[in-house]
Design a protein that fits this description.
Beta-Lactamase, Alpha-Beta Plaits, Arc Repressor Mutant, subunit A, 3 domains, 5-stranded antiparallel β-sheet, 5-stranded mixed β-sheet, 15 helices, 10 strands, about 55% helix
Length: about 375
């Protein structure tokens, strides 16, 4: 293993905080690649040669004893029984020797931890690429490649699985979470609840977190979803919505379950008070999602043709909240922070510009379908072009 310069520098800086002595990290070529005394970085260290031959500690009692050395002690750093570097502590031998074994052991531990973390990152990225290939590839010509890769990654595709798609939002109408740091923490948070089985898979794709769970070991799927939802809100003040697909037993089934989970998620996002929706909960939503893009456009044009983008966005929010609260004026007004008379005015305005009255049962169905179509994947962008 080659220890990266940035890791070596991090190690010596941390070690100095503990013992308050200058520390060097020397690579197997006897070059100081990291030091708390920055002027020494890049220098040749003759004492390191002796450490490599002796495979043990070497004390420097005279600064002219070896090329590029100062008084102190130098010890080999091992990883998997191989010397990957030398750690040097500058100072009088009698003062620094007491730190030798401790600094040596801590350095080896930090290198091992960094290696494990890097391997975990590589494995995570490999699985992410594999899952994305399974979910998003268009043809079935490379089934053999998928099979081989699944075996190499120890991902079993022929076991009962359910795919969930989740999206995280901050509570109280704040901006959606999309920074790299937050995504990393959210990923690890969710992973804590599903890493009881190595066959449980988690990847992040855009704003969504995709979970592909082994149903042989997931005894209470809804209980698991509730636990993630409640604890994420408690610990981070974040809200999460889930879409749940049907059970699958091969790569084609996983893709179908994923598409179902995406449809379910869109409904969960529409009805924010329902933080999870299963494909089996859908009825009209299934019809909407199976419409062609042309049919969706024509329907939206029929209902919303006289609205500009700003008006449309405003009325969609009003209608979504109105539907979510089953037509309750009081609850809708409270959620939108409006006076009930202001809400009544907005509903009357929607009737005027669209020709459909949200308080009329038949017209309500027309508007409800329009909102579902508007919020379906890609429909909004197509309509606003």
């Amino acid at each position: 293993m080659i220890v990266p310069v940035n890791l070596a520098q991090e190690i010596v800086d941390r070690m100095k905080e503990i013992i308050n002595q200058d520390i060097n990290y020397i690579d197997p070529n006897c070059i100081i690649i990291a030091s708390t005394d920055r002027k020494r970085i890049g220098d040749f260290h003759g004492g390191a040669q002796v450490v490599l031959k002796k495979k043990g500690m070497v004390a420097i009692t005279d600064e002219n004893q070896f090329i590029g050395t100062r008084k102190g002690i130098n010890l080999p750093v091992y990883f998997d029984d191989n010397i990957v570097g030398i750690i040097g502590i500058t100072g009088k031998e009698e003062e620094v020797s007491k730190y030798g074994k401790i600094i040596q052991s801590m350095t080896e531990i930090l290198i091992k931890e960094a290696f494990i973390k890097e391997q975990s990152k590589i494995e995570r990225e490999s699985k992410k690429q594999f899952i994305e290939e399974v979910l998003f590839r268009i043809n079935d010509e490379d089934k053999e490649t998928i099979r081989i890769r699944s075996e190499l990654l120890n991902v079993k595709l022929d076991i009962p699985r359910v795919t969930l798609v989740a999206r995280v939002q901050q509570v109280k109408k704040r901006k959606m979470i999309d920074t790299a740091v937050n995504n990393y923490h959210i990923y690890n948070f969710i992973n804590r609840y599903i890493d009881y089985d190595q066959q449980n898979l988690l990847v992040q794709s855009g704003l969504n977190y995709i979970m592909i769970l082994n149903m042989n070991t997931t005894n209470d799927l809804i209980g698991l979803v509730k636990k993630i939802y409640e604890n994420l809100k408690h610990e981070y003040n974040l809200s999460i919505c889930f879409g749940i697909g049907s059970e699958s037993r091969d790569d084609a089934g996983i893709r179908q379950s994923f598409e179902e989970a995406k449809k379910s998620l869109m409904v969960s996002l529409l009805y924010k008070k329902r933080f999870y929706v299963s494909i089996f909960d859908l009825d009209l939503e299934l019809v909407v999602n199976d419409l062609s893009e042309k049919a969706k456009y024509n329907y939206l044009f029929k209902v919303f043709k006289y609205l500009d983008e700003e008006q449309l966005s405003s009325y969609i929010e009003v209608l979504s909240t109105y539907f979510r609260n089953n037509g309750s004026i009081m609850k809708t007004a409270d959620e939108l922070f409006l006076h009930k008379n202001t809400l009544q005015y907005k509903l009357n305005k929607i009737k005027t510009v669209t020709g459909y009255d949200p308080r009329n049962t038949r017209d309500l169905v027309v508007l409800y379908l329009a909102v579902l179509i508007y919020k379906s994947e890609g429909a909004y962008k197509t309509f606003m072009l």
